[in-house]
Amino acid sequence: MPRRALPVSVILGISMVAAGVVYPVTDSALHHTSPIMIATLRALLGGVLLCAMLPLMRSRLPRTRRLWRWAFGIGFGGVLLVVLSDPGNVAHGSQLVIGFALALLGALGWAGGGLGMRVLTQREPDLDIPGITAAQFLAGGVPLIPLVLVAGGSTDWGRPVLDAQLLYLVIGGQVLVYLGFNAALSRWPSTRVYAWTFLVPAVAVVVDAFLGKLPGVGATAGVVTVIAGVAIVNHPRAEARRPTTGPPSVPAKAV
User: Is pTM, for the whole model, over 0.85?
Assistant: First the structure.
C-alpha cells in the first residue's frame, strides 16, 4: 500500500516551530561568529546534508537545466540579501531606516521565492521536492563561498556551544524548515501556506519567554492574535470549495 502522506498542517506546524527557534539560536551564535558565516554554512552544509539524504528518500537532484535555473532563481534571493545586508548595529537614526528597508527586502525575497516554488510545483506535478530543495541550497550557498572567505569575520571554532547551535541551524533551521515549507507549497495554495509563517515570530517570543525574557502586554496580545488568525485561516469553512464558473455541462443523451 502507498505510504500515507503527513497532513500539511502537521508539516507546517513542525516547520514553523523549527523556524521560530532559529531566531534565538542565531542571536546566541552571533556572539561567536558572523552573519555571513551562518548564512553560508546553513545553505552550503544544508545542501550537502540533503544531497546525502536523497537516496534514502528515493529522490535525486534535478536533471534538467530548466529546473536548475529555477533553483538558482529561488536560491539567489538569499545570496542577494546577504550581500546587501549590513551586519552592523541598526539601532537608531538612518541605520534604523536601513534595517526597516532590509526587513522589507527580506520579506519580498521570501515571498518571491515561495511563489516561484508554488508556480514550479503547479507546472511540474511530479516535482521531486527534496531534490529541488537541495538544488536551491547549493545554488544559494556556493556563490557565498567567495564572500565568506573575504569578509567572513572571526569565528570561535571548537566551542561546543557554537557547534551545537550551527548543527541546529543547518539541520533544523535549514533542511527541516525548507523541506516542510516546499512540501506544503506543493499541496496547499500559497496564500494559506504563508499564513502559517506568521507563527514564526510568535514561536520566537515563546522561546524567549522560556529563557526568562518575558514578553510585555503588547507582545503577548500579538502572539494570541497571530495564533487566532492562523486558526481562522485554517478553519474548515475557510477552505470551502467555490463553485466553478466554467460553462455548464451538457447532459449526456439518454440511450
Answer: no
pLDDT at 254 over 60: no
The answer to whether residue 207 is domain-embedded is: no
Q: How many domains would you assign to the chain?
A: 1
In a domain, 222, yes or no: no
- Distance in angstroms (rounded) separating the CA atoms of residues 133 and 46: 10
The whole-number average pLDDT for the span 208-218 is 88
Residue of 150 and 253 predicted with greater confidence: 150
The C-alpha cell 516535482 sits at 127
> For residue 104, what are the domain limits?
8-197
DSSP 3-state of 189:
coil
Angle separating helix axes 8-29 and 160-170, nearest 10 degrees? 150
The answer to whether 136 and 75 are in contact (CB under 8 A) is: yes
Q: Is residue 227 part of a domain?
A: no
Is residue 113 in a domain? yes
| Sequential DSSP letters for 140-198 | HHTTHHHHHHHH-----TT-HHHHHHHHHHHIIIIIIHHHHHHHHHTTS-HHHHHHHTT
Burial (CB count <10 Å: 0-12, 13-18, 19+), residue 85: middle
| Whole-Å CA distances, 199 to 11, 13, 221 | 13, 9, 13
Distances (CA, A) of 44 to 171, 174, 186: 12, 10, 24
Measured CA to CA, the distance from residue 42 to residue 171 in angstroms comes to 8
Task: Please give the C-alpha separations between residue 15 and each of 116, 171, 253, in angstroms, as whole numbers.
Answer: 19, 12, 52
Q: CA-to-CA distance for 105 and 251, rounded, in angstroms?
A: 53
